[in-house]
């Protein structure tokens, strides 16, 4: 069994080095040097066991996901990630668990050159809280209130995969390789940082789909004072989700209301289409037009047949999910 | 019962306004404008129920303490507080509980003009994670590795009160008004921000006593490569702690090893004595010289009789406490 300070030493040994970290883990607080003239972008998200990930999630996947969901928030602002802090509550100070957790956390931190600069380890039910810090030039952040009537709605990737993986897990676990591919999307979401960095100047409002496409689009509509028309059958379906053989309405509901995809949903003027496709190609992620912004309020979804459509269950609220 | 977004609205309604918050609660991330030329100081601490506060702690006191323990870390760096983020995990989305929590959180936030700029609310065992942000001029931060041989060791306030309150609570609760005064020191610690701001240029190493005086002094000694000689009977005793009528060794142990006091311990050259006393007077807190820094390593404590002294139990580790 390790003590708190042993765990901190294990964590410190694996931190990404950055010149702008004046003083990292080990003092009362971290000392950081923000770049001149930039705005600081800060997001904070907690993952609790059994709420934000299944109890049987591998420690390395928990580590990855804890950072990924936070980097996704920076991506949705168009920010460049720089630093993070980590608060880790564990029932027991289990060094092997922490090492495995760090395997996943560090793998993603290194991809984005994010330095872990502080936080704490403490006793409690398994819970991981991360705060991430990034930068954006003044006026360039992708805000929810920046949509205009006439914009088109875009989404990255293939929403619904994580929700189907969760449904499969609830029903007893993944049954074949295609379902294990879905589980990877639940456990190791890819924060769309590379895409987010290319969207300022092209996209208007941008949000990450952590609560589900409908719920997150509703946030944009409320902030911007507009209405979103969503073509639900235009939302792309992954091969793995298609292989699950779901009824169309069940599949649509997972895609519209399932949380945890961490794809980006953004709005942009029609004239930006080609530039957005080019940016997505550079960022190595697919993007798809799935609707448009009109006058009014709220979100309406329509099927390919032109029928109004509503999900089996609405939204995602971490107090009801 | 309230949902996640209702709770966020309740929290947002009470936030301190600051001109350097470009975009606060409500988007994927906060947008902040750090002051030019300053270093950013960041600390993060989690409080879990039953570990960091007794289960019967009032919600307002939990709110106060969650911010206080973090501001204490900024104080120990000599930093000016500015912003914070809050992640609140609750078993149920209880609006009355959140309102009471915010009463305590806001009371302290307003004292220090700290703006809450983001975070999340989620379901889980009661847990509060706060990240605080402050500023310090380059080269002015109070680091643990800055002590020199010949320095004197100082402490603010009257350590031991919080530990006695916790001992009383464990034994069945406070029995008289003096003990209730101790409980207030456990539940509503005063972060020594005003003192910390006056120490750069006077003090060398500075640390907050969250883990206990001996354990925290040991951190300073390890970081600075020196030895601390502690006059245990010079550590000031509050009237309330004296009224508890403890055996001297029990009282010394609480003062040397009890955590949760959030006083500052700092080292300074002899020539700074008068300036330190004047700074403490301005900051409205008592300061006392309790030892000296010598060559060597580790911490040794001596009683007023010149006897070597060791506590009944050593240090405070959040995995053993």
Automatic annotation (TrEMBL), chains A, B:
<keyword id="KW-0547">Nucleotide-binding</keyword>
<keyword id="KW-0067">ATP-binding</keyword>
<feature type="binding site">
    <location>
        <position position="73"/>
    </location>
    <ligand>
        <name>Mg(2+) 2</name>
    </ligand>
</feature>
<keyword id="KW-0418">Kinase</keyword>
<keyword id="KW-0460">Magnesium</keyword>
<dbReference type="InterPro" id="IPR006283">
    <property type="entry name" value="ThiL-like"/>
</dbReference>
<feature type="binding site">
    <location>
        <position position="45"/>
    </location>
    <ligand>
        <name>Mg(2+) 1</name>
    </ligand>
</feature>
<feature type="binding site">
    <location>
        <position position="208"/>
    </location>
    <ligand>
        <name>Mg(2+) 3</name>
    </ligand>
</feature>
<dbReference type="InterPro" id="IPR016188">
    <property type="entry name" value="PurM-like_N"/>
</dbReference>
<feature type="binding site">
    <location>
        <position position="45"/>
    </location>
    <ligand>
        <name>Mg(2+) 2</name>
    </ligand>
</feature>
<feature type="binding site">
    <location>
        <position position="316"/>
    </location>
    <ligand>
        <name>substrate</name>
    </ligand>
</feature>
<keyword id="KW-0479">Metal-binding</keyword>
<feature type="binding site">
    <location>
        <position position="211"/>
    </location>
    <ligand>
        <name>Mg(2+) 5</name>
    </ligand>
</feature>
<feature type="binding site">
    <location>
        <position position="28"/>
    </location>
    <ligand>
        <name>Mg(2+) 3</name>
    </ligand>
</feature>
<feature type="binding site">
    <location>
        <begin position="119"/>
        <end position="120"/>
    </location>
    <ligand>
        <name>ATP</name>
    </ligand>
</feature>
<dbReference type="Pfam" id="PF00586">
    <property type="entry name" value="AIRS"/>
</dbReference>
<comment type="pathway">
    <text>Cofactor biosynthesis; thiamine diphosphate biosynthesis; thiamine diphosphate from thiamine phosphate: step 1/1.</text>
</comment>
<comment type="function">
    <text>Catalyzes the ATP-dependent phosphorylation of thiamine-monophosphate (TMP) to form thiamine-pyrophosphate (TPP), the active form of vitamin B1.</text>
</comment>
<feature type="binding site">
    <location>
        <position position="120"/>
    </location>
    <ligand>
        <name>Mg(2+) 1</name>
    </ligand>
</feature>
<feature type="binding site">
    <location>
        <position position="52"/>
    </location>
    <ligand>
        <name>substrate</name>
    </ligand>
</feature>
<comment type="similarity">
    <text>Belongs to the thiamine-monophosphate kinase family.</text>
</comment>
<protein>
    <recommendedName>
        <fullName>Thiamine-monophosphate kinase</fullName>
        <ecNumber>2.7.4.16</ecNumber>
    </recommendedName>
</protein>
<dbReference type="InterPro" id="IPR010918">
    <property type="entry name" value="PurM-like_C_dom"/>
</dbReference>
<feature type="binding site">
    <location>
        <position position="260"/>
    </location>
    <ligand>
        <name>substrate</name>
    </ligand>
</feature>
<keyword id="KW-0784">Thiamine biosynthesis</keyword>
<feature type="binding site">
    <location>
        <position position="144"/>
    </location>
    <ligand>
        <name>ATP</name>
    </ligand>
</feature>
<feature type="binding site">
    <location>
        <position position="28"/>
    </location>
    <ligand>
        <name>Mg(2+) 4</name>
    </ligand>
</feature>
<feature type="domain" description="PurM-like C-terminal">
    <location>
        <begin position="149"/>
        <end position="300"/>
    </location>
</feature>
<dbReference type="GO" id="GO:0009030">
    <property type="term" value="F:thiamine-phosphate kinase activity"/>
</dbReference>
<keyword id="KW-0808">Transferase</keyword>
<dbReference type="InterPro" id="IPR036921">
    <property type="entry name" value="PurM-like_N_sf"/>
</dbReference>
<feature type="binding site">
    <location>
        <position position="73"/>
    </location>
    <ligand>
        <name>Mg(2+) 4</name>
    </ligand>
</feature>
<feature type="binding site">
    <location>
        <position position="210"/>
    </location>
    <ligand>
        <name>ATP</name>
    </ligand>
</feature>
<feature type="domain" description="PurM-like N-terminal">
    <location>
        <begin position="26"/>
        <end position="136"/>
    </location>
</feature>
<dbReference type="Pfam" id="PF02769">
    <property type="entry name" value="AIRS_C"/>
</dbReference>
<feature type="binding site">
    <location>
        <position position="73"/>
    </location>
    <ligand>
        <name>Mg(2+) 3</name>
    </ligand>
</feature>
<dbReference type="InterPro" id="IPR036676">
    <property type="entry name" value="PurM-like_C_sf"/>
</dbReference>
